[in-house]
Amino acid sequence: MTTATPLDFATVDLATVDLGDASYFADGPPHELFRRMREEEPVHWSPARNWATTPGFWSITRPEDIRTVSLDWKTFSSEAGGAALSNDEIFLAFQRSGIIGMDPPRHDRLKGLFQRGFTPKRVADHEPMIRGIVRRKLDEIEGMGTIDIVEDFTPGIVARVFGSLVSYGPELDENMSQVASFAFNAIAAGEDMDEAVQEWVVWLVKSALALVNERRENPCDDLVSALLEAEIDGERLNTAEIIAIIAILITGGNDSTRSVFAGGLYELLRHPDQFQALVDDPEKIPTAIEELLRLHPAFAHFARTATKDVELGGKTIKRGDKVVLWYPSANMDEATHPCPHALDIERCPEHQTFGAGGRHFCLGAALARLQLKILFEETLARYPEMTLAGDVEWMASPVTPGLSHLPVRLGPAHRS
């Protein structure tokens, strides 16, 4: 995938803009460009010049339009063309095997069965496990002085949380983390599924199949066993559906939690007064997390495909056109969020980080919020004098535009 020379987003002719170009995201989401698009051309065509499998797409940047698309699955389908920009056939088949690439009635059936096995109580019951994993990782980095949060801290935590949820051993953590970052991001960033990516996907499917077969023979108190037991009107999930759920949780869940935590911590370290406010009063952390989710959504977009010709924002979207919902733009809408670029840990905003409503609202939102709550509580309590230790770097990705490097100086460790 090639990238173009960075543009001056304040002056660029919007007719030349191609939001499939990763260089636009070299410094994170292009918020100035999104602002202009919301004001001047909220439904915008990008030619997707660098995407071999995608002929172009419509960008939707206003929150009200994103919500309209999200709520109308009959007109804007997740199943017809998948939820990603790439039209790679293997990747599309992978999406359609799970919730992310389904429309009703298949989606509603699978979602209902998933929710039977992934109840709010079951999520809450994992708090001691998650807190223990975070504390052990904090113990490991003690005395290191300066670390990179993205490389040295969060990957091991998130991989082990998911390992504990589905009962795979720590020996698989590194591979699961790699497959999440490599396979998902490589495909979703517009590259054809080459042999290396296919090998990772095959490894993930085989590993998930082994977990399902093991839990079918030896059930225990984990997510896989709960999914095997979930039942509605005598109907249960089949093996392929459970494998797809595991794969989506591992790939999407790995990237999302660590991306939001890194972005949120960076935001707090840039505003020491608000960092200190959370150190002094950890009860404010759940509210602060909503603001950090608004400012740093893990995924920049998901896509839909028009099933018929339709008018939106003064433009005619043709049947078969791909429509891309840009959540960072919605979260920075001035009409919804006064002073949207300012961090306000007491704002408690509505945001579209987990989607804009409808059937595809993120099923892992409760688990993500719980993990983030524990990560911030434990990290700020252990290292209340943490500071930035250098410049950050961004992923330069139109899919997952989070931080790739966040160097911090830990400061003295505090133990309660």
From TrEMBL:
InterPro entries: Cyt_P450, Cyt_P450_B, Cyt_P450_sf. This is Cytochrome P450. Gene3D superfamilies: Cytochrome P450. Belongs to the cytochrome P450 family. SUPFAM superfamilies: Cytochrome P450.
